[in-house]
Amino acid sequence: MSKSIKFDRHKPTFFALAWGVILSISGAQATLLDSWYFNLVQPAWKPPDWLFGPMWSTIFICAGIAFVLAWNRGPSKQALRYLIILYIVNGTFNLVWSLIYFRLHRPDWALIEAFGLWASVLAIILAVRSYSIKSAWLMSPYLIWVSIAIVLNWETVKLNGPFS
């Protein structure tokens, strides 16, 4: 078996791992928990800060598995290209949200951007559900978590705004 064939068979796994690692590392670098963050008034129901790392790790693992399953069941090369584009768009929205919120200190702008993140997760679910229902279900915790994050972001804006 040639090296090319081995790589092609594992290409979705390599992509999913790279996507998860790049998002995890860049997201961690973008997330600055400094005095600005700790001085924000947070809603009483906000999850503890230590929970966010394990939650995002779990979500990225589920999303990576969803990608591999969808890739393996993809009906066409066009569907697979679309899947890659959706994951790249999603990763971009994910990273940009962190940069806006934690580095620019603009939860109000991040709230607007969060709807793009939410829509990108939904787009993945809708794209794969016809050929990989398992992938769609594996993406559902991501959609739920982003939905919770939007409400938390909204509450933070209400409690602390206006921002400048």
Helix content: over 70%
**For the residues shown, what is the average pLDDT?**
94
Indicate the multimeric state: single chain
Radius of gyration: 17 Å
What is the tally of helical segments? 6
**What is the straight-line distance between the termini?**
59 Å
Structural class determined from secondary elements: mainly alpha
The helix/strand order is HHHHHH
Q: Sheet bearing the most strands, described? A: none
The tally of beta strands, per DSSP, is 0
Low-confidence regions: none
How large is the share of residues in beta strands? Answer: under 5%
Structure in a nutshell:
This protein is 82% helix and 0% strand. It is mainly alpha-helical and 164 residues long.
Descriptive account of the structure:
- This protein has 164 residues and is an all-alpha fold.
- The protein has a domain of 113 residues.
- The protein is built from six helices and no strands.
- Helix 1 packs parallel to helix 4.
- The radius of gyration is 17 Å and the shape is elongated.
